[in-house]
Amino acid sequence: MSALPPHVESIHPALWRGAQLARAHGRTVDTGYAALSAELPGGGWPLGALVELLVQQPGIGEMRLLKPALAELSALPVVLLQPPHIPNSLAFSYLGLPVDRLIRLRAPKTADALWCAERVLQAKSCGALILWQQHIRTEALRRLHLAAQASETLLVLMRPLASAQDASPATLRLAVRPANDGLVVDVIKRRGPTRMETLPITLQPSPISPTSIMG
Predict the structure, then answer these.
(1) How far is CA 25 from CA 43, 102, 120, 129, 192, in A?
(2) C-alpha separations of 200 from 5, 145, 169 in Å
(3) Rounded distance, CA 65 to CA 148, Å?
(4) How many angstroms separate the Cα of 31 from the Cα of each of 62, 114, 131, 153?
(5) H-type alpha helices, the chain
(6) Which of 10, 41, 198, 202 is 20 to 30 A from 174 via CA?
(7) Torsion on CA atoms 197, 198, 202, 206, rounded to nearest 10
(8) Mean pLDDT for the stretch of residues 20-35
């Protein structure tokens, strides 16, 4: 029986040692925050995977956290599905997202919203899809994750902070809370070692009301 190679993780891209970050399976987009990117496999938000941001409440800075990535991906439309507030064109221009690159979708029921999300991902014509949901079943999360894997879209699911205790197939889960100069981020799940320390993120001040930006 042959001996294992000295670097076991070299056998397959899906393997990594418990003390190291996994290698990214596909493309990533830089978060724009060096401290956060350093904690993520591939050095950024994963494309073609389910990412969860678990927020204490809407409008605490979660959209400004996504600002650099969304601006980079805005060559293609950015879809906002079930946003908690009406998007403000001036606010999104500040984020580097022209209003003609934004698509706002609303659905009367959760099932309809999830159907819309799957159709957007299957179309492969959008740079990012941000979906807000209060309650979502595990099987629905799996469907979203599978649909995302067939695309190169940045899929971000905004959920309440209390959802951190729920099981999820998401590749990356971050808990986000407000702080004096920005946010504090807890890494709930990633492909890599557990991070026990809270990560402070300084956000660029916004000249626009946080709720009108939706974060």
Answers:
(1) 12, 28, 22, 20, 13
(2) 38, 28, 25
(3) 21
(4) 12, 26, 18, 15
(5) 34-37, 62-73, 89-94, 110-123, 138-149, 210-213
(6) 10
(7) 170
(8) 78
CATH number for the region 29-213 comes to 3.40.50.300
Cβ atoms within 10 Å of 203's Cβ, excluding its own: 19
State the amino acid at position 130 in one-letter form.
I
| Angle between helix 110-123 and helix 138-149 axes, rounded to 10 deg | 10
Give 58: exposed, middle or buried? Use CB within 10 Å, 0-12, 13-18, 19+: middle
The beta strand positions in 134-181, using DSSP E, are: 154-160, 172-179
Burial of residue 34 (CB within 10 Å: 0-12, 13-18, 19+) is exposed
Residue pLDDT, tens place only, 138-177: 999 999 999 999 999 999 999 999 999 999 999 999 999 9
pTM: 0.85
Token pair, residue 194, equals 């557990």
Contacts with 64 (C-beta within 8 Å, 6 or more apart), sequence order: 95, 203, 204, 206, 213, 215
Match 């221009």 to its residue by tokens: 93
What pLDDT score does 10 carry? 52
